[in-house]
């Protein structure tokens, strides 16, 4: 297993190119199963989660081919209605193939996502959305089994919470439904608007994606399509923290300020400068860092996927920060590891009290999940001495060439092949 070795204390400077959004790529790859015509996706990030999702659709019978321009997926016929526990266990997003398989085949069986590394991650909202559209769904011995007696029927779906994944499931299934579907309390994440843009290019008729209310006119006439994904706002936010924590200056090329409004607001409150450039966003810090009080929320609130990174930054602020996680109930696996680097953090329920300003010291730490592990890298960039981060495969799931990008702007970081 690869490790990363980081020697802290280098001020980052230069430009980082932000890749396509992983969380756009995954539902779009799943959506390719809806249509019998080819879908070309450009701007897919080169990360292992994307490869895993391509393998999943490949296993369902889709033909995946790559060219210099992008990746084309053609699901002329689907071979199977099953996805195995082995594939779903590794990546919760695999549940996104449930709706396309059901819509296309009239039945689908997907293993329940296993593990609960960042809290219980139920699928009840996905199930209710499909039931509202007329599907019969039952969970039997760890498998979600969905079937249709007649086809899907357009309906009003009121989501109990604005789940990103359940909104994607509802949106994809509704493209096959007879008549109109209305999704209320839909998630508003930019990646959902991007999924709708991709589906629209494929022939779907969708209005209101990116808002609380989405309307879909079903029975899509599918056609060949090409779609370019939006940039990864979480990768951009992560490099923004890298610039801020090292007191450096980075230009995040391709990043979109409008997708990062709440994160930028928090960074500015902490004393970080942010401004737009012709190519993206520039982040810099020269003064002291101020503490912060924040709660994670669904979009457009502060993203849970940046909570661990901002906590690393808060360990360097002068004073105490309060960080509350309100999206996932136990997403604090980075806390004990940050404490091993010298951070002073107390956890109480869903809140973390971060007493900033103490010194961080390099040591050996363990990556536990994607965003938790990147917070350790960020802390290591300012820790005194050498940090070894084990289990780097967690980072490779969602960050394209993290070590190379950081090295290019001055970090002392190397990958130790294991
Ligand atoms: C997506 C993102 C993930 C991000 C999360 C929240 C992808 C591939 N992943 O995950 O990076 O951290 O949004 O921004 O896009 N819930 C239920 N029942 C359900 C579904 C969800 O109760 O059926 C709950 C979850 O337990 C959680 C909350 O809703 O507390 C938000 O989850 P959701 O928005 O669905 O996250 P994901 O789509 O899994």
UniProtKB/TrEMBL annotation:
Keyword Cell cycle in annotation: yes
Catalysed reactions, semicolon-separated: phosphoenolpyruvate + UDP-N-acetyl-alpha-D-glucosamine = UDP-N-acetyl-3-O-(1-carboxyvinyl)-alpha-D-glucosamine + phosphate
List of residues binding phosphoenolpyruvate: 22-23
Residue(s) carrying 2-(S-cysteinyl)pyruvic acid O-phosphothioketal: 116
Signal peptide: none
Pathway membership: Cell wall biogenesis; peptidoglycan biosynthesis
Residues annotated as binding UDP-N-acetyl-alpha-D-glucosamine: 92, 121-125, 305, 327
A Pfam family: EPSP_synthase
Database matches in InterPro entries: Enolpyruvate_Tfrase_dom (IPR001986), Enolpyruvate_Tfrase_sf (IPR036968), MurA_subfamily (IPR050068), RNA3'P_cycl/enolpyr_Trfase_a/b (IPR013792), UDP_GlcNAc_COvinyl_MurA (IPR005750)
EC assignment: 2.5.1.7
Subcellular location: Cytoplasm
Family according to the record: Belongs to the EPSP synthase family. MurA subfamily.
PANTHER family documented for this protein: UDP-N-ACETYLGLUCOSAMINE 1-CARBOXYVINYLTRANSFERASE
Protein name (database record): UDP-N-acetylglucosamine 1-carboxyvinyltransferase
Lineage, opening ranks: Bacteria, Pseudomonadati, Pseudomonadota, Alphaproteobacteria, Hyphomicrobiales
């Amino acid at each position: 297993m690869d490790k990363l070795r980081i020697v802290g204390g280098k001020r980052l400077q230069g430009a980082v190119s932000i890749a396509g959004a992983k969380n756009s790529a995954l539902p779009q790859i799943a959506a390719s199963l809806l249509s019998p015509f080819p879908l070309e996706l450009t701007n897919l990030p080169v990360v292992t989660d994307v490869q895993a999702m391509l393998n999943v659709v490949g296993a369902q019978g889709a033909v995946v081919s790559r060219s210099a321009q992008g990746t084309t997926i053609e699901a002329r016929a689907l071979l199977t209605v099953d996805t195995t526990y082995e594939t779903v266990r590794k990546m919760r997003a695999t549940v996104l193939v449930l709706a396309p398989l059901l819509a296309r085949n009239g039945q689908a069986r997907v293993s329940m996502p296993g593990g609960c590394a960042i809290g219980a991650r139920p699928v009840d909202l996905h199930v209710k959305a499909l039931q509202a559209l007329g599907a019969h769904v039952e969970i039997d011995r760890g498998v979600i089994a969905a079937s249709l007696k007649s086809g899907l029927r357009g309906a009003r779906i009121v989501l109990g919470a604005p789940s990103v994944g359940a909104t994607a499931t509802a949106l994809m299934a509704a493209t096959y439904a007879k008549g109109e579907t209305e999704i209320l309390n839909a998630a508003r994440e930019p990646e959902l608007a991007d999924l709708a843009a991709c589906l629209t290019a494929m022939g779907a008729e969708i209005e209101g994606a990116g808002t609380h209310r989405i309307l879909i006119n079903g029975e899509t006439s599918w056609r060949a399509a090409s779609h370019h994904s939006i940039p990864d706002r979480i990768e951009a936010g992560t490099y923004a923290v890298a610039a801020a924590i090292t007191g450096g200056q980075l230009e995040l090329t391709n990043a979109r300020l409008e997708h990062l409004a709440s994160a930028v607001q928090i960074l500015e409150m902490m004393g970080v400068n942010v401004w737009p450039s012709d190519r993206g966003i520039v982040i810099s810090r020269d003064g002291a860092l101020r503490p912060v009080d924040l709660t994670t929320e669904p979009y457009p609130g502060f993203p849970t996927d940046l909570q661990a990174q901002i906590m690393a930054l808060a360990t360097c602020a002068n004073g105490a920060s309060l960080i509350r996680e309100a999206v996932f109930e136990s997403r604090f696996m980075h806390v004990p590891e940050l404490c091993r680097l010298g951070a002073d953090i107390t956890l109480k329920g869903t809140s973390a009290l971060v007493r900033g300003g103490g010194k961080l010291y390099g040591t050996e730490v363990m990556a536990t999940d994607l965003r938790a592990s990147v917070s350790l890298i960020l802390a290591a960039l300012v820790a005194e001495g050498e940090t070894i981060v084990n289990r780097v495969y967690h980072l490779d799931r969602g960050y394209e060439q993290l070590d190379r990008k950081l090295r290019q702007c001055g970090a002392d970081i190397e990958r130790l092949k294991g």
